[in-house]
């Protein structure tokens, strides 16, 4: 048996789903057809007045003395952030930084937000507009540490505040698309510089209605009181509910862009992908943990699932909520009249109290980074789920001194025997298991994905998470769902999960997905097939692949200033064996973010394949320095050390991996191989652990049997091999080794 390091599962993020590192909207470069909101005013004065002081109209505005006097506290204590002191000085219109190197004033030029928080932008070098570290909480009327407020509280994972100068707080890179209208970032990658322009701050009329120049022209040319038959404008009145929802989603979803050309009336999944429950920023039961906006939760809403409800039922097009105060429950009465009329009998709260409002229980607010957002899944309170998954619970928004266990007792008293939480508890358990890569529940996951009454967001998440599952039982379901599910979101997720499998039957399915009516599915199929030898395709498949590849490249190149986008571009070029461009992409990603570990790991892997191991080691050492507790980084470092025969160093790194991940089968396997030359006892111990921890990987059990046989224990080796062959009857090497065990056990030649 050849004693080489076997790197199953060693790559940190190779084949990552394209775009999931990129979370922000892209706006098209403005054309000459946009005229600005003022051109609407002469004919639409009433609406203009409502819009101009709305949260849409004021999504961004210039910082002025008048704004400051009206909205901000002039005096505040200095706030310590990252070892420096920051203070707002109204009389100068600056945030003053005081630190070891002295004092610096940052001019405040723009203001974003206002519903919950005011953020402030300051100009930095090379055209950057940076979000300042001090923000103002509108509800509490206090200044606060903005980066510190954004620390996530993931289960089992430590998060830290970013420096306020980080690129993720650069307006041009991150938050621009939903605060100004018709913006072009105009990023120069060679100079790492921006020449950003926009039509006007805030979300203007043309964002939702399209370019207005032709509309203005035909209306001005029309006779008095005779409006033209064709108004030359996009009207939301004639849109379907789905179109209205897709119109709002690009600014109210956590997403990744596929194009820069979304137009009102277009379909969301032709221009964007959606971050879903596979992401740790959601609790497993779909409740919001961080800053996820609206759309993912909306997909879980039984009200939205009927297809008749849209955003404009509850909100005006300028973003105002229609049902306030005494009218609060009118939002729900058109569909739930009986429930609303039941009043206290349904809510178990006094009439007129906060607890008697439908939204208090069904759309509770969650707080993160001094922002409050309503849960748009519209599901009932489920204390059982809050207890099981640690998620938020609407009851505790008012009853601050109580617990989820108390709420569960109350609900059980009101609704004895209620099973309302049972479906959520079930699928949330599947999500939780898939996140942990506990594939003992794979049959249940596959069954759920195919249910007619499944939640679309849950199926998509399970499919995305199943990409890490080595069990071949998933393939029949993935192939079926990729072509036949009614949801493009789910079809795309099934195609994504095919990454890395070039079996002819899987390739055939993904080739069909290239012709899907939705761009999202086509782009995901192109990514899966990026490394497919083109000579294996017929003319028709060539044409479909070329078209989808062009769409994929468009998506990959949208965010050249984003480290994750450059990383994804590197993966694409690496899959196509374009080593020169892949190296350049990974290096550009690292230049943009030196702490972006996926690019360092994949760059080191590519350098290793070229025999440039000194460079590969330098990048991995830096990755280990940046993230010493990252088991995947240390595993890749250990694999490299093993490959260059520095086995004692490799062994030490594998042991560190196991301290971080006590059941890491790859580390255990490689420890067995290293031990094989000097200690069969250790080789047997480690290979046995690897086989037990990952029974789906046949090579581990084979290696365990090999060492057992070498140590003179053919009967035990034969038992391991028989179990292995029961799972993998086509494993020829294992069958041959079994015959050697049987000969050794009987003493026959």
Strand and helix map with partners:
Layout: H1 38-41, H2 45-52, E1 60-62, H3 65-71, E2 79-81, E3 84-89, E4 94-99, E5 102-107, E6 110-113, E7 117-123, E8 129-131, E9 134-137, E10 142-145, H4 146-149, E11 180-181, E12 187-188, E13 193-194, E14 200-201, H5 205-209, H6 213-221, H7 241-248, E15 255-257, E16 272-274, H8 295-298, H9 302-305, H10 330-333, H11 337-342, H12 344-347, H13 358-362, E17 365-368, E18 371-374, H14 383-389, H15 395-398, H16 404-414, H17 422-435, H18 442-449, H19 456-465, H20 475-484, H21 488-496, H22 504-513, H23 519-528, H24 539-556, H25 563-575, H26 579-592, H27 597-609, H28 613-626, H29 631-643, H30 647-660, H31 665-675, H32 680-693, H33 698-710, H34 714-727, H35 732-746
Antiparallel strand pairs: 1-6, 2-3, 3-4, 4-5, 6-7, 7-8, 7-9, 9-10, 11-14, 12-13, 15-16, 17-18
Helix pairs in contact: 14-16, 17-19, 18-19, 19-21, 20-21, 20-22, 21-23, 23-24, 25-26, 25-27, 26-27, 27-28, 28-29, 29-30, 29-31, 30-31, 31-32, 32-33, 33-34, 33-35, 34-35
Shape estimate: globular
Low-confidence stretches: 1-29
How many beta strands in the DSSP annotation?
Answer: 18
Mean pLDDT value: 92
Computed structural class? alpha+beta
Percent helix, as a range, is 40-55%
How would a crystallographer describe the biggest sheet? Answer: 6 strands, antiparallel
Report how far the terminal alpha carbons are from each other: 20 Å
Write down the Rg. 29 Å
Q: Report the total helices.
A: 35
Residue fraction in strands: 5-15%
